[in-house]
Amino acid sequence: MSMARNHQKISVIIPVFNEEDAISLVIEDIPKTLVDEIIVVDNGSTDNTARTAQKAGAQVVREELRGYGAACLRGIASVNNPDIIVFLDGDYSDYPDEMESLIAPILRGEADLVIGSRIAHPDGSKALLPQAYWGNRVTTWLIKIIYHHRFTDLGPFRAICFSALKKLGMQDKNYGWTVEMQVKAVKRGLTIVEVPVNYRTRVGKSKVTGTLSGTIKAGAKILYTVFSLW
């Protein structure tokens, strides 16, 4: 790949909880000529997710404290001094083979943070559950009103310069992680770009938007995070 060896070291972090049916598909689709390490953070899985990820070629670390943000923080603590970190879900809803277009703005020196926007892709947004779609719409609208930056999505598929990430001082341990990163990036004056990414129905049932309680908890925490950082 033309961009792969731009002397930029790239680490991929994949937080997972009980994704044994999906994780090998995710790892297999990551462009291996592009990345230097793949770290799967097992967030207390009770199935064979960790073993499956290891067999597929990933480095597996474990985070016992349950929560998306906690798993991402564990992944960050485990990387080997990369230039760029890519965050990717382990449920095969994202398209890992689109990673090159995701990191391209950073490699060109045009961005510090790149959000993979499912909403900006005409096919990607169709796979979002209604509660996820409208949750995104409301949250991004609030961010525009309060912080004067227009996002279209809070998508988990994203890339960020490691040096910029360290300046954000990420803290959220669960549902507020993605919005915390985006709001803090705006407040710190990072250069932010969105690129359209495709999206498909995940393998298995979502632990968050797949349940009423998960949807309510996630929505409440995301809104709390938007206002608390104000």
Q: Which descriptors would you attach to this protein?
A:
8 helices; 7 strands; disordered N terminus; globular; alpha/beta; Spore Coat Polysaccharide Biosynthesis Protein SpsA, Chain A
Describe it for me?
With 230 residues, this protein is α/β, with parallel strands linked by helices. It has one domain: Spore Coat Polysaccharide Biosynthesis Protein SpsA, Chain A, CATH 3.90.550.10. The protein contains 8 helices and 7 strands; from the N terminus they run E-H-E-H-E-H-E-H-E-H-E-H-H-E-H. It has helices at residues 23-29, 49-55, 68-78, 99-107, 130-147, 162-168, 177-187, 212-228; strands at residues 10-16, 37-42, 59-62, 84-87, 113-117, 158-161, 192-196. It has a 7-stranded mixed β-sheet with strand order 3-2-1-4-6-5-7, sandwiched between helices. Strand 1, helix 1 (23-29) and strand 2 (37-42) form a beta-alpha-beta unit. It is globular, with a radius of gyration of 16 Å.
Estimated radius of gyration:
16 Å
Morphology: globular
Number of helical elements: 8
CATH superfamily: Spore Coat Polysaccharide Biosynthesis Protein SpsA, Chain A
* Order of secondary-structure elements: EHEHEHEHEHEHHEH
What portion of the residues fall into strands of 2 or more residues? 15-25%
How many separate domains make up the residues?
A: 1
- Per DSSP E runs of 2 or more residues, the count of β-strands stands at 7
CATH classification, class level: Alpha Beta
Main sheet strand line-up: 3-2-1-4-6-5-7
Average predicted local confidence, pLDDT: 90
Low-pLDDT runs: 1-5
**Spatial separation of the terminal alpha carbons:** 41 Å
